[in-house]
Amino acid sequence: MKRQALLIGGGLAVTAYILGTSATADITGSLHDFSGQVWSQNQICLPCHAPHHAEAAEAGMLWNHTVTTAAYQIYGGDGATFPVDEALDQKSILCMSCHDGTVAVDAFGGLGGTFVIAGRGNLGTDLQNDHPVGRAAVYPTHAGYFDPATWENTAGFGFALADMDVDGELERVVSCATCHEPHNRNDNEFFLWVDNDGSQLCLTCHNK
Ligand code: HEC
Ligand code: HEC
Ligand code: HEC
Ligand code: HEC
Question: 92, 147, 176, 201 - which has most CB atoms within 10 Å?
């Protein structure tokens, strides 16, 4: 399923971006294609990655978007706050650099931004009402959960747990990027790696 990139925030008159029909599932024309926005320099990748002079190279992935520095409340954390790099794995931090609402979508390449995600796409910094990720989602090995070896990479490259240092231990955790593929390669609703019809995504991990 493909939807038009929305205009984020008000203020600028943006010409509707008309899609070329794309034969393959990909980021073009998805909600992560900002190339129709006047601030995008007509680029798809640039708001997130740059081939040179990437703004936040230390984040990995040639990351070119301003990285969030917010503190988070986590699932099951009884309201305690954690610095972002203790709360979340690295891939989730990249997602939350737009989806926590503290950094503008158009803050990339060292330029300050203006447009903050409004509505459901803005998860905020209180993740107590969201499926656990990062520190709150160390993958358990007991019978309630399928062995990752049975499902990792089954839905294509990258459908996998992420590595995270949790209190000095290297753990395998559920990340935003475990459930979602930000480039829409599988063309599922909500950028999911596995279509969630019949809760198939949930039943990949949870033995219920
Ligand atoms: C909205 C932000 C966003 C946009 C736009 C985006 N990416 Fe990414 N990309 C990410 C995130 C987040 C990750 C890390 C999570 C992951 O590995 O899926 C990533 C990872 C990658 C990786 C390494 C892992 C992999 O999936 O192979 C490559 C290569 C990549 N992106 C290329 C691109 C290219 C090329 C474009 C433009 C056509 C692009 N990306 C557009 C967010 C984005
Ligand atoms: C550069 C900013 C940016 C980054 C980085 C980013 N997103 Fe988004 N994402 C957006 C915007 C903007 C939208 C559209 C939001 C809206 O219209 O409400 C969106 C939409 C989405 C949607 C909704 C798709 C739909 O079909 O409804 C999902 C899911 C999503 N993003 C997940 C992620 C995940 C997971 C990551 C990291 C792997 C990520 N995003 C990284 C900006 C970003
Ligand atoms: C366990 C799987 C899973 C994880 C982990 C996960 N999501 Fe989602 N996400 C979903 C599903 C399924 C949907 C589809 C909508 C729904 O069922 O509420 C969704 C919907 C969304 C949407 C669309 C807005 C909405 O609420 O409907 C955004 C944006 C999003 N996710 C971003 C993220 C980000 C950012 C992270 C990391 C903090 C994340 N997701 C972690 C499964 C997940
Ligand atoms: C990639 C694997 C994975 C997927 C996919 C997944 N989960 Fe989870 N889920 C986990 C892990 C790991 C935890 C944290 C377990 C722990 O800490 O004991 C968790 C926790 C939960 C919890 C909280 C359990 C508790 O004891 O507080 C619920 C509820 C839940 N998941 C429901 C869902 C639903 C609904 C879906 C589908 C939208 C889903 N999960 C998809 C791995 C997954």
Answer: 92
Give the angle 78-81-84 at the CA atoms, nearest 5°. Answer: 130
| Å from CA of 87 to ligand 1 middle | 22
d(CA 76, CA 14): 42
Q: How far apart are CA 173 and CA 59, in angstroms?
A: 18
- Of the CA atoms within 13 Å of residue 127, those in its CB half-sphere come to 29
Whether 4 and 29 have beta carbons less than 8 Å apart is answered as: yes
Residue-level pLDDT at 135: 98
Q: Which among 31, 48, 96, 164 is the best mutation to test ligand 1's pocket, defined by most ligand atoms within 8 Å of the CB?
A: 48
| pLDDT less than 70: residues of the chain | 1-25
pTM of the model: 0.93
